[in-house]
Amino acid sequence: MFCPNCGTQNEDDAVFCANCGTALAPDTSASATDAVQTASVDNSQAAQEQPQFGGQPQFGGQPQQPQFGAQPQYNAQPQAPNEKKPFKISGAIIGAAVAVVVVIAAIITFVSIGKSNTDYKKTAKKYIKAVEQCDWNTAYSLMNIPESEFLTKEALAKVNQDATGEAVTTMTVTDSFSTLGNLPGNKAVTVTYQTPTGFDSEELILTKSSKKYMLFFNKYVVSSDSFVVKDCEISVPKGLTLYINDIQVSDAYKSSDNSSSSYDKYILPFLFEGTNELKVTGDMIEDFTKTVSLDYDEDSASISSSSLTIDTGKVSSLQSQAEKDLKTIVDAVIAKKDFSSISSICNSGSKSTCQTRYNNLVSNLSSSYTWKSGTLSNVKASVYTTKYTLNSDGKPTVRVTVGYTLEEKYTTSTSTDERTRTRTASSSSYYIEYVLENGTWLINTFSLYM
To answer: Which helix (H) or strand (E) holds 159?
Structure first.
């Protein structure tokens, strides 16, 4: 009989198809041709169905007629269960492995660089090399700088502007004992090195920086005890502006504990050790600069008023003012005016002194003769000294000597005939002394010849 599923001819008494295993119904009511015609499922689908034991197979649709005379078509060999596929490594796994290797290499490099740049002995070497070669930018970056407006990179270079650099040829760093070096977080070392001029050594204290290197590593910097002096006292004449290494010193640094009436005392918390430049300026003086060497804590320095010179423009102005004031005084004396007529050109703190001097001139003239007129000529004023001086109140004072010729017309008590006399004042004994009060030069005292 023919298989209703695949059309294969089987023995008449066969129970299952020899090709596909489909159960075969006995040929009782119809011919083999009719059985074949009942198949409706195509060969590919039927080949996948399992035989149904104990009953007839289920068919749907019209069966296809077998092609007699042709070889039956067998299905491909079924795949054995649990057959293993070949192992392959995907591109994603390879990429992940490469990424892990790169990350590990980066971590190793990161740690290596971090440790190399935070080794305290290497820091000590870099610092000594930078100082010896006058590389102040590098040296500054390796220092433990306290918070101060006077400890700038520019100030460090200025303090060391006279230094001459030398190449360092060999260098060794060894740990050493120090009280400061044995404090937590500190390292004490001795740096021995050679330059073209010979061998030298330096004791350094290194301390941990408050900032981490690359966010994770402790960074060592050279302790400020090696290059900073503390609480320096600097005194300058009152009324002037002080600069240290081109940095203006504000009034906030003035000491309240100051017994001097002529000088201001400044206390500077931090300055670089070495040669510092002091400069004072003011409306009345020429700018003055002085260098001082500061080597230890609580060191001191000062600028004397005798070192200062009055500004040339102010000297010329004072000389012109003295000539004008001289004429005002002489005219008032000749006219026998009261002192009140000239009190406005005198300093408030010395009006009594000026009044006494004025009244004496008037009295001397009245006792010997009667003035008719007086004429000043050849008036010449000159500043006695251009040195900047201060009075007991700490105010700038200037003495201007006056030379002049005074032609007098007068009569005596014994004759009404008018006489003429000429007097010449040419000695430095004749002067007008000024004091600066609220920005104005006023007469402090005077000595005149009449």
So the answer is: helix 153-159
48-60 pLDDT, tens per residue?
444 444 444 444 4
pLDDT(291) > 90: yes
Integer Cα distance of 220 and 449 in angstroms: 76
Element (H, E) at 253: none
Strands 228-237 and 300-302: parallel
**pLDDT band of 364, cuts 50, 70, 90:** confident
What is the spatial distance between Cα 418 and Cα 188, in angstroms, rounded to a whole number?
96
Task: Dihedral sign for Cα 19, 25, 31, 37, please.
Answer: negative
Alpha-carbon span 201 to 204, nearest angstrom: 10
Task: State the pTM of this model.
Answer: 0.64
Phi-psi sector, 292: left (phi>0), alpha (psi -120 to 50), beta: beta
Rounded to the nearest 10 degrees, the angle between the axes of helix 120-132 and helix 91-118 is 60
Contact 133, 165 (CB under 8 A): yes
Each as own residue / partner, the long-range contacts of residues 423-431 (CB below 8 Å, 24 or more positions apart, any chain) are 423/449, 423/450, 424/378, 425/449, 428/384, 428/401, 430/401, 430/402, 430/403, 431/384, 431/399, 431/400, 431/401, 431/402
Q: For residue 249, what are its two tokens? A: 């010193």
Report the C-alpha gap between 226 and 205 in whole angstroms: 8
Q: pLDDT of 146-170, one tens digit each?
A: 999 999 999 999 999 988 888 999 9
Q: For residue 5, give the nearest of 64, 87, 67 by alpha carbon.
A: 64
